[in-house]
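fold description:
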Amino acid sequence: MDKLKRWIKENPIYAVAIGIGAAHAVAAVMESTAHIIGSSGYAIHASKRKKNS
């Protein structure tokens, strides 16, 4: 843990870049998951509507 803290102090730019990269990766995964859930929810809703009409 001390090695990591020292590395962050010596390389703050890399630490920030890795942090931003991780945040972007998490955001991208969450966004794609939301798209999948949203599109499948829409498909289910559309198929229910077709059966009713």
Remarks:
- The longest helix spans residues 12-52.
- The chain has two helices and no strands.
